[in-house]
Every structure is written in structure tokens, then in C-alpha cells.
Amino acid sequence: MKSVAKNPSVAVIDIGSNSIKVLVAAREPGGSLKALKSRTIDARISTGISLSEPRLGTEGMTRGLAAIRDLLAEAAAFAPARIILVATSAVRDAANGTDFRAQVRAATGHEIRILTGDEEANLIGRGLTCDPALAALQDFYVFDLGGGSLECLLFKDRKITQAQSLQLGCVRLTEKFILDPAAALQVAESTALALHVRDELKRSGFRFPLVAPAAVFTGGSMATVRLLKGALHGVKLEDTPAVVTTEALAFLLDELAPLTLDQRKAVPGMPAARADVFPAALVTMVTLAHYAHVDQFHHSLYNLRWGLAAEALAALP
Prior knowledge:
By secondary structure, the chain is α/β, with parallel strands linked by helices. It has two domains: about 10-120, Nucleotidyltransferase, domain 5; about 130-300, Nucleotidyltransferase, domain 5. It is about 40% helix and about 20% strand. It has eleven helices and eleven strands. The protein has helices at about 60-75, 90-95, 95-110, 115-130, 170-175, 185-205, 220-235, 245-255, 260-265, 280-290, 305-315; strands at about 10-15, 20-25, 35-40, 80-85, 110-115, 140-145, 150-155, 160-165, 215-220, 245, 295-300. The strands form two sheets. The protein has a six-stranded mixed beta sheet with strand order 8-7-6-9-11-10, with helices on both faces. It has a five-stranded mixed beta sheet with strand order 3-2-1-4-5, sandwiched between helices. The longest helix is centred in the N-terminal third of the chain and has 19 residues, at about 60-75. The two termini are about 10 Å apart.
């Protein structure tokens, strides 16, 4: 009989539109999850995601495969009991997503699980419940902004009562509304993008209570906000306040919108790979906050990977 490690770990590789991430996690004696390894590689496999028939480009697939191989090698050092590869909007929507999955399988021996929008949203919700900083919250929103989609959830008594995945990712919206991402953001572009976000939220059927509960935000766009704040004060992201106000987001948008791409890349703390899509992300976050009557977000680093890790660890013998 195969023996199981006393404190086994699992590895999750999340193949997103803008970045590919790994989490190796194990359960601590008290039942909480502990990260043994976490890393993000900006691979941007989603170029062309806004087209009527999205396709993954050859360069994007090459970058994605290289990132997956690197992250698998790093995860192998922890001898995880399970290794899980999942893909979200970019691969899910691409006409040639099956080709990319076949390349990954041939190169690594691992299958990629394609998450539906509902699965993605619910697993993000499960990941958030692993965050000890949110233990006191009972009723709250969860929003996760990626490159291809925006996940919206509503918790009541710490149980998910609504979950929607909307095609409002920052890469998708940049391609759709911003003519030249290397130039300063134009008022007409920002206005059209904001109107589109508002209209999609209205059409989605997601019900926003008149009195907004607490709001939690995950994903790389809000992490970038904190990176910029950390660089301004000379501290790491983890040492910046987790609460980000809508006013602060609007101020940051006003500061960055007039800058060219090269100028944005030069802003201390700005990840170079996100500088082109960050204006669209800020417009989306500010529009969402206003639509949902939210005046601040609590940023959490517990996300989809944590939900998948919790699911996988619970299934181990």
C-alpha cells in the first residue's frame, strides 16, 4: 500500500490570462492552510482575447509553456501528493485552447483542467474563506479581476449566495477600448470603457444590495495598487494596508491616466508586464465600486489557488 506523507502538500498551477502562478500548500495541525511556495510569472498568453473568435498566439503559448515547466520544476522540490493545473478565461475562450492543452500534456505529462466561470468564481470564494484576516466577516462581496474576466460573488453568513463570471478582464477591455496602450489614456476611451463595465454589470443579473456589505478584492490589479503604495513608502506589499479606498483608486487613475506606457513603467513599484493594462483595470475597479456603492475594498492574497488547494487537500486520504 502506498504510504501518505504525515503532512502532505499539493501544488496548484493557475494558468491565467495575464500571469501563471503556482501555490504549494499544506495543512497545519490546527487545520489552516500554509503556503510552502508561491510564485507568479507574467506570461500574457491572452493576446487577442477580445476578438470575436479568440485564439492563443504562438508566442503566448510558448511563453505559457515555459512558465508552466519552470513552476512545475519548483513545485517538484516539495514532493506534492497532487499537482493540479487549471486554466481560466484565456484558454477557456480560445478557439485553439485544446491545442495549448495538448502541448502542455506532451511536454509535461499533466492535463489542464479548464474551469467554467461558475467553478472559477466558487473556488475563489472557497480560497477567501482560508484568509484568517477575513474570519470575522459574515456578509461580504468578493471581486476578482483577471486579464480575461471579472468574478463577482456575494456571501451571506459566509456561504456563497451569488456567483457570476463576467468578460470584463483588464487585458480584454484594453484590447477592446484602448486604441494605443502605449499612449496616455484618452477621456473618450475611459468613458466608453466605464459605460461598458456598468452596462455589463447591469445586464449580468448579479444583484447588488442597496446597502453594500463589506467588499473583498483579489487579483493582480489590486496587488499592483499595493505595490505602488509600498514603493512610495519603501515597504513590501505585505506591509501596506490591506484596505484600499475607492477614493484612492480614483486618485491613482487620475495620476496615471495622462502618462504614456514608458512613463507608467517608470513609476516605482509598477510591474512592467501590467503597465499597459493597468489603466483599464483601474477604470473597471472604480466603476465597479461606484455601481456597487462600495467605498473601500479589503485586498486579500487568498484566491483561486487557495480554493483549489483546500479542495485538493480535503480529498487526500
